[in-house]
Amino acid sequence: MTELKNDLLLRALKRQPVPRTPLWIMRQAGRYLPEYRATRAEAGDFMSLCRNPELACEVTLQPLRRYKLDAAILFSDILTVPDALGLGLYFETGEGPKFERPVKTRADIEALPDIDVTDGLSYVFDAVRTIRRELDGRVPLIGFAGSPWTVGTYMVEGGSSREFPTILGLAREEPATLDAMLKKVASITTDYLNAQIEAGAQAVQIFDTWGSALEADDYRRFSLASMQQIVDGLIRERDGRRIPVILFTKGAGPRLADMVATGCDALGVDWTTSLADARKYTDDKVALQGNLDPATLKGSPEVIRQGVADTLASYGKGPGHVFNLGHGITPDIDPEHLGVLVDAVHEMSPAYHADDS
Asked: Is 1-28+236-357 assigned to CATH 3.90.1310.10?
């Protein structure tokens, strides 16, 4: 087992004292980096990049060469699971992901196959092993998956949606049918994340991008319950270390209080909820990750530095904060601006940990 040289992220996720606030950035390997665009062009298309372990490793490591980040996150996509289910994932320029065979009826759901993730998604685990080897203990590696609800919106709608008419109709008209689909996706996702952990992921995050489309009771039934199923089935310790679990529901707000009860280690917070309020909602029972508005990175260095200062002040003193954006970095960001953010976190955050012991 390679010794981990920088374990700040893992310590913060366990709410242990750290000398400064660790940080990583959602979508830190992505289109804002010219070297990423060059590697994607070499691969030919997005999914070919995901399916090539060596190139997936390359783009995972690219941001670490530029910035003093405290974690790598596996380069992959939340739709690898439904792709492995045979739904025919493809990408159209300007329109995002689509499925050739969406799941819209009870018969469609009942026809979903049982899959062995170590067979259908072996390229992901090969990428994890390759990344761990190349990291050589420099920082921890985060694995991830989409929440069953969020993944389900793409499966049922056939692609990206903002209104979710079909899946919300299914929730109203045939809730038990939707429950069955989400439980199946949750079971596969549990196996998927556990295989990432077995391959070397040292923390995992579940991305629930569209949970806020549900009303409170429906959120608990259709989104939170399936994430709970996953958390209950995850490997929580490997090689003598705890494997922290981060849940992130975009736009969660007061629902953060419900999310604490899952037994996760940390909650991602988007920029629409202050970290001060998030600490109140969660009663300091879990670590918090976030939550600078990604649009701040379009501003001047002074604006970015002020945004960092405000985010750190919102969380306040004490352990349990992982600095991040409130959602993914966007493709139009100047890479130099992210460097300003990283340097500012390194400079400003130690003051918030001076009393930690």
From this structure: no
Token pair in block for residue 89 = 């994932």
The answer to whether the beta carbons of residues 84 and 117 sit under 8 Å apart is yes
pTM score of the predicted model: 0.97
Is 31 annotated in the active site?
yes
- Cis check for the bond before 194: say yes or no (omega within 30 of 0): no
pLDDT digits (tens, 9 = 90+) for 229-242: 999 999 999 989 99
Residue 27: active-site member: yes
Whether CATH 1.10.8.640 fits 48-66+73-233: no
CATH 3.20.20.210, the chain: domain bounds: 1-28+236-357, 48-66+73-233
- pLDDT tens for 244-282 read 999 999 999 999 999 999 999 999 999 999 999 999 999
Question: What is the model's pLDDT at position 79?
Answer: 96
Judge whether 123 counts as a catalytic residue: no
Q: Which of 154, 192, 315, 352 is catalytic?
A: 154
Percent of the chain residues past pLDDT 70, beyond the cut: 99
DSSP 309-340: HHHHHHH-SSS-EEEEESSPPPTT--HHHHHH
Q: Check 40, 129, 238, 242 and give the catalytic one.
A: 40
